[in-house]
Amino acid sequence: MAGNGPDAGDRVSADAGPGAADRPTTSLSPRAADAAASVGVEIQDDGLARVTLRRGHAGNAIDLATARGLLDAARACERAAVRAVLLTGEGKSFCVGGDLREFSRLTGEALEKHLVAVTDALHDALRTFASIDAPMVAAVQGAVAGAGIGLAAAADVTLAADNVTFTAAYTGIGYSPDAGVSWQLPRLVGPKRAVELLLTNRRVPAAEAVAIGLVSRVVPSGELIAEAERTAEALRRGPTSAFGVTRRLVASGQTANLARHLDDEATALAAAAASDEGREGVAAFLDKRAPDFTRIPSRL
């Protein structure tokens, strides 16, 4: 949850943002309204979900409202059985980590309870996104630190602008990791390098991030959103159920023994072949046409 290094407090804020007092009234509860203002979710009729971190003025730092907003967005995607998720952050930086200004206003037991509430919501959001079949594409730019790394790593495809820098930042302020960072980093970059990044908090530029496997691809900053849109659209048109099975097989394969994993693959393949998606895919191949997986409803 850490902010982006010792100076993160200069960039993050717990305020509602410019013009907050002038916002129109809403039927949402204050808690729900704050969450909706911090994280936007738009679910299109074609099954693409756009989830946007909206605290660009604060580097999209994660406060309690943002964590709850991410959870609300994940649950909305789950209810709608979306086909793909596109995660972006407004402003110069994707996410600089936790909102240190908000945290600094509390001490002792009050701070501990607050951080438990923040991480509970954030972690539930990550668990929910991981449990659905729809793949996630993340477009990251600028500073990505602390829990921002966790969000970026949670995506199945992470596209990084060429101006991005990653910094673990946690131990730099005396914190330990959250947002799955200590679970994801060793799997992406290896345990030795993960520990080094978590202990030293050195900045990792875009070129190194793709070289060590922290991101999928690097694109020019001016092309980031367009490329992320194209990638998400391609996944939206794909076999959503097969994507879900594939994602879970890759995740479980990190800890399963080979014999068990081979059995899991065989069972999953047989079910996929017998599914509507499998039948459409094979029929399209034999007919020498493009498959139309979008006509097959995603599973609830």
Automatic annotation (TrEMBL):
Belongs to the enoyl-CoA hydratase/isomerase family. Transmembrane segments: none annotated. Residues 1-33 are annotated as: Disordered. PANTHER family: ENOYL-COA HYDRATASE, POLYKETIDE BIOSYNTHESIS ENOYL-COA HYDRATASE PKSH-RELATED. It comes from the Bacteria. This is Enoyl-CoA hydratase-related protein. SUPFAM superfamilies: ClpP/crotonase. InterPro entries: ClpP/crotonase-like_dom_sf (IPR029045), Enoyl-CoA_hydra/iso (IPR001753), Enoyl-CoA_hydra_C (IPR014748), Enoyl-CoA_Hydratase/Isomerase (IPR051683). Gene3D superfamilies: 2-enoyl-CoA Hydratase, Chain A, domain 1 (3.90.226.10), Lyase 2-enoyl-coa Hydratase, Chain A, domain 2 (1.10.12.10).
